[in-house]
Amino acid sequence: MNFESLLSDRLAPALEAVAGHPVDPAVRASPHADFQSGAPLALARELGRAPREIAAEVAARADLAGLAEITVSGPGFLNLTIGDDLLAESLRLTGADQRLGVPATAAPERIVIDYSGPNVAKEMHVGHLRSTIIGDALARTLEWLGHDVVRVNHLGDWGTPFGMLVEHLVDLGGSGDHSIRDLTAFYQDARAKFDTDDDFRTRARLRVVALQSGDPLSRDLWQRLVAQSERYFLDVYQRLGVTLGPDDFAGESRYQDDLPVLVAELLAQGLLTESDGALCAFPDGFTGRDGDALPLIVRKADGGFGYAATDLAAIRHRVGTLGADRLLYVVGAPQRTHFEMVFAVARKAGWLPGGVTAEHLGFGSILGADGKMLKTRAGDTIKLAELLDEAVARATAPAIGIGAIKYADLSGDRRGDYVFDWDRMLASTGNTGPYLQYAYARIRSLFRKAGTGPGPVTVTEPAERALALTLLGFEPALRAAAGQAEPHRLAGYLHDLAVAFSVFYERCPVLRAADDVRASRLGLAELTARTLHTGMFLLGIETLEEI
User: Fold this and answer.
1) Which pTM does this prediction carry?
2) Which letter, b or e, does each residue of 108-147 get, where b requires 16 or more Cβ atoms within 10 Å of its Cβ?
């Protein structure tokens, strides 16, 4: 039961009657009562009245019968206390519901989430971590809420880099059977040759044409590169515990046949302008540092297509073919302007109609202890597989190491940077993944010792009440995380729940209590375990029965 929402709905008419216009009740959980509203304080200056006087009038007008008691406190706060019987009944209903009192959405959307997006023939590195973890948590959460989620792993698998790499493989004898580490080294060698060898540069460019024209040898080597890379990506995803699968791969190559048609449509609508031989769109409102209009290059001067063209074609496909209602792009913050320009052009072209939303969900960087981008001691980019190896080696169990990495990423606002600190992440106390896993394992251990099941919940002790109210806050936390694409709201809730359970466990003996009290407290423990399990699943963090 969403008490914040219910209390807000009941307080709103009283506040409007006092203020003469709609007022946000701003109901929040409070240490001074179950919930509290500070709305009267915000109205004091506007109405020219003392906030306690306003609060008293609102309290007198509010119809909270059967829901809560209301009192005025301090300078003019409204303290709201839920009735004991209603609290117990709410817990009973939540416990009886497989979905913990969270109904599936009544208005499901088809949501396409673009996340992870590594490059073929290159090892995944720490820079791919945030997109993969954040995107997967959002995909899980939105899907659990009843939306039709389409996961898209937009691979970099086309263009000049692959002309270089295929030509280099031809020079090496034409074999495509190599490990991902071999391919990474080959790519580096091919790039070095491309930059220094005129003959190789010419051959690589011709190889791009051959690849795009369907030359059998070029296509065969390219397809082997893609297949080997996809097997490697899937192995990393399996280790990381994310839900991306083989059907979710959608490389840039998928859209190549659409690009000439896309350019023709944009030209016909007058949305492209030639600039230094390139065809560019100039969406309104985007300017560079010099104040000049900022171009979105759709077709380059040499006739090739860049990221903008592929991203536009992807939107056209995701809306027109996949039928998306909402597009989410989990891509680093530096790409914000690029995506805003792409969305603006797509809207102008009619590929993003009014009923469809497109959002760039940017995120910050992972920093080292020195406050700079996380690197190896030699200054190289950290390979993702090596990071996972170290997490497993440092932790008491693989699930704890992986969970620690994921929770460290998801527990802070995605827009901010965070410092990668092994000791803090793996600590069993504090706001960490292992703390949640230990809390869940402690409850499972409690039931193994109890030998009896839970019973109806009654709430009498303050620690029981605090835990009960926290349990009933699952739905608002979950909907806030999904609605605002902010997984840290769910992560923070789960930490609060684990803390509330820890206080309850210390202050309210379970196994030594009288039979009816014991059964009630086991009921609270069981509901806590279920809520932790569900919430951690939605974040992609594995629970352990014992640690």
Assistant:
1) 0.94
2) ebbbbbbbbbbbbbbbbbbbbbbbbbbbbbbbbbbbbbbb
